[in-house]
């Protein structure tokens, strides 16, 4: 099992959309786990049951069977298998227990040689957030940002803070859209490699945001193909994704 943790430093660069796109193609066995401090984005997008997922799970010790029973499915591309998702909830007032739950998930959700991989949508990383527990055990942490001065400034500050707290192992940057800064500009500013670039693809993004009905062409879209390349690099070549000293 591998954990890929997706997060952002500010705004809404499309972390949840990227998580779904990375999990979509049929040859993957991945679960999208919502670990955003502010709660679920998937539930309103796809009319999912908010009584399951983290809301029911955090009250008990982690159990693999219960975890699987709490999974729901979304199918943004009818030609592909459904994506299993674990719906999140706001962790306000119960960060201690949720932190422990994420640690238990990382330690016990699957044996090391399992084909199951977890794509953790951690959203915006706040100070002392419960989801930092997932960043600490992730095989790769992907900081999602747009290549503009404000977003890159916040991404650099986040990477620096996480490095100071010794929670980062393999860490890279995923850019959403193009310009005004190049990949090399961003990599130098953040001291982390750029793993890939998600193109502006409004049609595909609208489907993954639940704003348009499912579409059979989605897995061939530029957005999903770029996200799939990032997924494969995180799973197969995590050792190449290292932040600079």
Strand and helix map with partners:
Elements: E1 2-8, H1 15-23, E2 30-34, H2 42-46, H3 54-57, H4 64-69, E3 72-74, E4 83-86, H5 95-108, E5 117-124, H6 132-137, E6 140-145, H7 149-164, E7 171-176, H8 183-190, E8 194-198, H9 202-208, H10 222-236
Parallel strand pairs: 1-5, 1-6, 2-4, 2-5, 6-7, 7-8
Antiparallel strand pairs: 3-4
Helix pairs in contact: 1-10
3D architecture notes:
The protein has helices spanning 15-23, 42-46, 54-57, 64-69, 95-108, 132-137, 149-164, 183-190, 202-208, 222-236; strands at 2-8, 30-34, 72-74, 83-86, 117-124, 140-145, 171-176, 194-198. By secondary structure, it is an alpha/beta fold. The chain has an eight-stranded mixed beta sheet with strand order 3-4-2-5-1-6-7-8, with helices on both faces. Helix 1 (15-23) packs across helix 10. The longest helix has 16 residues, at 149-164. The radius of gyration is 17 Å and the shape is globular.
Q: In short, what is this structure?
A:
It is globular, with a radius of gyration of 17 Å. The protein is built from 10 helices and 8 strands. The chain is an alpha/beta fold.
Biggest β-sheet strands, sense, barrel: 8 strands, mixed
Gyration radius, rounded: 17 Å
Mean pLDDT: 88
Beta-strand segment tally: 8
The order of strands across the largest sheet is 3-4-2-5-1-6-7-8
Unreliable stretches, pLDDT < 50, 5 or more residues?
none
Beta-strand residue percentage:
15-25%
Q: Sketch the topology as an H/E string, one letter per element.
A: EHEHHHEEHEHEHEHEHH
Helical amount: 25-40%
Q: Which class best fits the helix and strand makeup?
A: alpha/beta
First and last CA, distance: 28 Å
- Shape descriptor reads globular
């Amino acid at each position: 099992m591998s954990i890929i943790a997706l997060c952002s430093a500010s705004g809404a660069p499309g972390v949840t959309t990227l998580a779904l796109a990375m999990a979509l193609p049929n040859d993957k066995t991945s679960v999208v786990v919502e670990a955003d401090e502010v709660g679920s984005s998937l539930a309103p997008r796809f009319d999912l049951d908010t009584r399951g997922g983290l809301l029911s799970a955090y009250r008990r010790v982690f159990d693999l069977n219960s975890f699987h029973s709490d999974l729901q499915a979304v199918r943004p591309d009818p030609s592909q298998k459904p994506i299993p998702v674990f719906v999140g909830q706001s962790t306000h007032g119960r960060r201690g227990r949720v932190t422990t739950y994420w640690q238990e998930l990382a330690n016990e959700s699957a044996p090391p040689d399992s084909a199951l991989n977890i794509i953790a949508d951690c959203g915006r990383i706040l100070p002392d957030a419960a989801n930092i527990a997932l960043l600490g055990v992730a095989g790769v942490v992907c900081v999602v940002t747009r290549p503009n001065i404000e977003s890159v400034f916040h991404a650099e500050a986040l990477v620096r803070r996480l490095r100071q707290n010794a929670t980062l192992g393999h860490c890279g940057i995923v850019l959403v859209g193009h310009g005004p800064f190049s990949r090399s500009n961003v990599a130098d500013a953040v001291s982390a490699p750029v793993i890939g670039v998600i193109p502006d693809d409004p049609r595909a993004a609208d489907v993954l945001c639940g704003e348009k009905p499912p579409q059979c062409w989605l897995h061939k879209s530029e957005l999903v193909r770029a996200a799939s390349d990032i997924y494969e690099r995180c799973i197969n070549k995590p050792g190449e994704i290292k932040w600079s000293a």
